[in-house]
Specification:
The complex is a heterodimer of chains A (318) and B (279). Chain A is mainly alpha-helical. Chain A is 72% helix and 1% strand. In chain B, 75% of the residues lie in helices and 0% in strands. The chains are: A mainly alpha (318), B mainly alpha (279).
Chain lengths: 318, 279
């Protein structure tokens, strides 16, 4: 790549009508340089994205022995059927959907509220914008440790306020996932705020002013003008939020996971966590590969849905 | 009459600030509690009413987090890991973005589609085999294992291509007349002109790298030689269950660099994050 790049490039000061052969060799050199520049990225994608992605389909055909180092056996497509119809997969899928329902609508509404509140010319608004964006700087691990403390049954505020369920939040089958949802919403607020704010800035002021002149109150302007114009951005945040919900892992590993049984009983077994525990605790790459494919299909469906919707909006606008 | 109008305007203004402040409190409260609790003595954590201001800040909790929690080592590892990933993603994205923006070659559109297709495959979907690949390469518990799978970015390439396409064609022609080859044009003209895009990509990819959790958990060992700070927090939370203030001191240390980055590079970060929204 470097050798191609350091070659003296064809000079623009060449004679006005270069012979066909020179032009052809120049074009060939340009193509070679082009491929050379793509090689580093393509190598990484080939080895660490496309190859492992495709290998999932192959791995899914094999049943793994209970102990490593024994030969695995060919199970064929039946293993796909087994996994997809298993209680383990279906309950994990439900946990993921429930988790998305818990995190996405509430998170988007709160982020939208923040974006609208910060979308005005006021003194000191920059400080508020920085604060509203600030959770993008946190990680799931940080959020999990902080909220783990906040929801600790002995420590701090909640027990003092008399909010102290038995079993505690993070050990309760019905409350563990909502509790994890709370910290996930908090952690994603910054991203939602930033994206929705950018969307709001693209809403033309004239439209809102025209609505105000027509006598529309603040709520009407918001619900009839801002939200419809912002809907592609809102939809984007919803799709990304749902994908994030299905991929949640760190907060579950830190707060309720750890042992295989635990997370299942606590119903915090979202799809990515299931892939991890099937691979690491279950030692079963075959099943984990099938679960990965399921995770991919969910992501794909969501992304395609978003693309279609955006396309339709573009056609309407045209 | 006029005074009434002024008073109602002032009331509205106060209401706006009240809403903003309330929302800010929602965001900041957990962070505030974390900082305060990191400075408390253990018994103060369980006191009723709860201690919301550290009257006798226990700064040594931070020292303890650093020494017993190995936080210094974890932070160093995270800096190295994130540094490699950011550098790698910026370099590969600049090169590929340049090819897509300025060069003509067969199958260009198809290859660009391949780059965009990577955006559809989340990393979680590839980890089963990547774990095997990394251990076959002898990269388990090494910085190569931590970083090489992330040295290219579909979104980064897309961003750089868009950035380069903003460079006027005449600039390329003029540079070519001056005898600039592609390499010189890339380093002297194209990259300097697209500095905001490069910065946005760098900040965005740093954030992603620093906050990675699942992959570092899978490929780093207990000897802490390459373990990153996010996994370090897990260790801290697990081993020092009696030491909540120390664990929280650890979280404050882990987020401090990112908050400084956020304040310093807010504009670039916003560009990077919103670029994803328009793709």
């Amino acid at each position: 790549m470097t050798t191609a790049a350091t070659q003296p490039a064809p000079s623009g000061a060449a004679p006005p009508a270069p012979p066909a052969r020179a032009r052809r060799s120049r074009r060939r050199r340009e193509a070679l340089l082009g491929y050379g520049l793509l090689v580093p990225a393509l190598a990484v994608f080939g080895v660490f994205t496309f190859y492992p992605f495709l290998r999932n389909f192959y791995l899914g055909l094999y049943r793994n022995p209970p102990f490593p180092n024994l030969p695995h056996t060919y199970a064929g497509l039946t293993q796909y059927r087994d996994v997809i119809t298993s209680h383990d997969f279906l309950s994990s899928l439900w946990d993921s959907v429930y988790f998305a329902l818990l995190t996405v609508p509430a998170g988007v509404v709160l982020a939208l509220l923040m974006a609208v509140a910060a979308h005005q010319r006021l003194r000191g608004i920059g400080v508020y914008r920085t604060i509203f964006s600030s959770t993008v700087a946190t990680s799931v691990a940080v959020a999990a440790v902080i909220f783990g403390t906040l929801m600790n049954p002995v420590v701090g505020l909640l027990p003092w306020l008399g909010i102290n369920p038995h079993p505690p939040f993070l050990q309760s089958p019905s409350l563990a996932l909502p509790a994890i949802a709370v910290l996930t919403i908090w952690q994603n607020l910054g991203l939602g705020f930033i994206v929705l704010s950018a969307g709001l800035q693209a809403v033309p002021d004239e439209v809102l002013e025209a609505a105000a002149v027509d006598g529309a109150g603040a709520w009407r302007r918001f619900s009839r003008v801002t939200v419809p114009l912002l809907s592609p951005t809102i939809f984007f945040v919803v799709v990304v939020g749902t994908i994030v919900a299905f991929q949640s892992f760190g907060q579950i590993d830190l707060l309720t996971g750890g042992a295989y049984q635990n997370s299942v009983v606590l119903h915090t077994d979202v799809l990515t966590y299931n892939v991890y525990r099937t691979l690491v605790y279950g030692g079963d790459p075959g099943r984990a590969a099938i679960l990965s494919i399921a995770l991919f299909l969910v992501t794909l469906l969501l992304t395609l849905a978003q693309m279609r919707l955006l396309e339709r909006r573009v056609t309407y606008a045209a | 009459m006029q005074r009434d109008a002024r008073r109602s305007r002032r009331a509205r203004l106060a209401a706006r600030y009240a809403v903003l402040t309330l929302l800010a409190a929602v965001v900041l409260f957990p962070l505030y509690v974390a900082v305060v609790s990191s400075l408390l003595r253990l018994h103060q954590l369980t006191s009723r009413p709860p201690t919301l201001f550290p009257t006798a800040p226990q700064w040594h909790n931070y020292g303890t987090a650093f020494r017993q929690g190995n936080l210094g080592v974890y932070m160093r590892n995270s800096v190295i890991q994130s540094g490699i990933i950011v550098t790698g993603q910026v370099v590969t994205s600049v090169l590929a973005g340049y090819a897509f923006a300025f060069l003509e070659f067969p199958f260009k559109r198809a290859l660009f589609a391949v780059f965009l297709a990577t955006l559809m495959i989340p990393f979680e979907v590839t980890m089963v085999t990547n774990l095997v690949t990394v251990s076959h390469l002898g990269w388990y518990n090494t910085f190569q294992g931590l970083t090489v799978p992330f040295l290219a970015s579909g979104l980064g390439t897309f961003l750089m291509r868009q950035g380069f396409r903003q460079v006027p064609r005449e600039m390329r022609e003029a540079a070519s007349l001056d005898g600039y080859g592609h390499w010189r044009f890339l380093t002297r003209v194209a990259v300097p002109l697209t500095r905001p895009t490069v910065a946005a990509l760098a900040v965005y990819s740093f954030l992603g790298a620093w906050n990675q959790y699942l992959w570092p958990l899978l490929v780093t060992g207990n000897d802490n030689s390459v373990r990153t700070v996010q996994i370090g927090l897990k260790q801290l939370a697990a081993t020092q269950i009696q030491e909540i203030p120390v664990t929280l001191a650890g979280t404050v240390i882990a987020i401090a660099p990112l908050f400084l980055l956020l304040i310093a590079f807010q504009k670039q970060l916003v560009r990077g994050l919103t670029a994803g929204a328009v793709k």
